[in-house]
Structures are given as structure tokens and as C-alpha cells.
């Protein structure tokens, strides 16, 4: 009987009958935390319906919390202006501070970013992985609310199978930023950002991420927008290996004047 109730609940979420930001959703457990609010239990990424639920939420313009191969992230449709506005409101972040996008494949990366100067060999060596590649944004990425002051865009392809499957099914780029208030530390468990839950369309629980606190450094951000040169924008997970990889492909550390 419990299994039947659980499946009905998941179907209701998928078709929009449940408001995940209130106590109307009644899972097996409710948590009275975050200032006394009753918060619904996150949806396990191992649940058979979780990927479809995530995609439906993104299509509706909602912001969801999702695990990556580094930290938990907040995600929404990158080409939906109102979804991006909501993402920034949740983060408490200036809309002049850029966010990255996440896609499923290198073909997608080449569609949404200008990458003619980057070889397939280099991209296959780097991706998927804990790296955000910054390149010029393509004309297809035309949301005026997405990094309005920037001509570049950071693009991720993660190793996490759940977000990979969501990206494949959604087919559009997903705006992605860490699941925490601006200037707060990155999160490795969903309960570390439960104060954000009431503002989210859904929270997907992939368990504890990583084996150490070093995981909180998040992805390394590397600027590859200038042919033959690289610049590290953020030193994150696996930065040494990433530098070795790009230098193996004869891409050199840039002087300031090269960018």
C-alpha cells in the first residue's frame, strides 16, 4: 500500500497537482526545520520517476536542486528569462555575476558555445568532468537575462549520471549554479541548503557527494575562449590534472594581455 501511495505522489508531482514548496505534498516523512516550516522530503535520484519529474519542472520554468559530480546545484532552463530571474532571487545574487550552463554532450557544447578552435581530442580529454569551460557564447544562447554583460559562457558536462540524463531528456541548456546563498559555502548534502527548499520546484537527493571537504571547491573554471591560450578563473576540483591536459594539447597559460 505504501508503494502505491508513493507512486501516486510522484505522478501528482509530475503533472503539477502537488505544490512542492508547501506542505500540500505529503511524502512518508515531513521535516519541521528552517524556521519551523514543514518541509517535504526530497526525491531520491534513484527513484524511477525522478528524471521525468525534473524535466517537467524545468519545462514549467521552475528552479530545482540537483546533484552534480562536485556539489549540489540549483538549475533552471537557461533560455527562460523568468526562470533565470527566480534563480538569482533564490541565490540572493547580483544578476551581473554570471552563471554557467550544463549540457549533455560535446555536440551540445559546440552548439551553445563557439568552440571551432578547440579540438575534439581536447574536449574528450576534459569532459565529462569537474571542469567548467569558458568560451564565447553562440547566437543560439539568446536569453537576455542570462549573463547580460558577458559575451562568454561557462559550460559544464558533468559525470553525475542523474544530471546527465536530465540534460539529455530536457534537450535545452540548463543554467547551473551552486545550491547555497551567495557567498555561502557550497553544499555536499541536501540538508545543508534546506532553507532554500520552499522556493524550489523540487529537491533531488543524490546522497552525500564526494569523499572529503575538498569537494566543496566545486568545478575548476578555465577560460579557453582565446585560441591557443588558457586562464584559470577558479581553482577547483582536479585543477592540476586539468592544467596538464590542456598543456598536453599545446595550449599555454595566457598573459593578461592575451585576453
From TrEMBL:
Residues of the YrdC-like domain: 48-238
Entry annotated with the keyword Nuclease: no
Top EC class of this enzyme: transferase
GO CC entries: mitochondrion; plasma membrane
Highest taxon of source: Eukaryota
Subunit structure, as described in the record: Interacts with RSC1A1.
Protein known as: Threonylcarbamoyl-AMP synthase
